């Protein structure tokens, strides 16, 4: 199977690789002075559940065998008041995580394109 017939999930390295990325990205987001407010006053159990839902969402969206049981992105992010500035800070952390794991450029482009496709569902104008 060549890289053009593999799913993004396979090209990224499967569930273990996606989990490693999430395990790096979430602490970056939580520690960020601008974005940390989204996790303030949340219990660790809720954060762990959210992390697993994110892993499931990313695996399923990338073509993996995972079933995502969470809510739609619009409903999940409704009322959070995520701004354009918040979105851009998030993208910077995501790029840093992808660079840390030396994700190849083609896969990085596909991941960024997918994430950008979610922007209107997450950012409140």
UniProtKB/TrEMBL annotation:
Gene Ontology terms describing biological process: oxygen transport
SUPFAM superfamilies documented for this protein: Globin-like
Keyword Transcription regulation tagged: no
InterPro entries: Globin-like_sf, Globin/Proto, Globin_bac-like_CS, Hemoglobin_trunc
Record's protein name: Group 1 truncated hemoglobin
Domain of life: Bacteria
Cofactor: heme
A molecular function GO annotation: oxygen binding
Residues that bind heme: 77
The UniProt record lists the keyword Iron: yes
PROSITE patterns linked: GLOBIN_FAM_2
Sorted UniProt keywords: Heme, Iron, Metal-binding, Transport
């Amino acid at each position: 199977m060549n890289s053009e017939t593999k799913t993004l999930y396979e090209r990224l390295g499967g569930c273990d690789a996606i989990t490693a990325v999430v395990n790096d990205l979430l602490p970056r987001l939580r520690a960020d002075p601008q974005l940390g407010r989204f996790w303030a006053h949340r219990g660790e159990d809720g954060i762990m559940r959210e992390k697993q839902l994110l892993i499931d969402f990313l695996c399923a969206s990338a073509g993996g065998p995972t079933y995502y049981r969470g809510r739609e992105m619009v409903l999940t992010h409704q009322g959070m008041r995520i701004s354009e500035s918040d979105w851009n800070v998030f993208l910077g952390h995501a790029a840093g995580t992808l660079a840390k794991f030396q994700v190849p450029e083609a896969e990085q482009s596909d991941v960024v394109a997918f994430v950008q496709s979610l922007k209107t569902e997450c950012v409140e104008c």
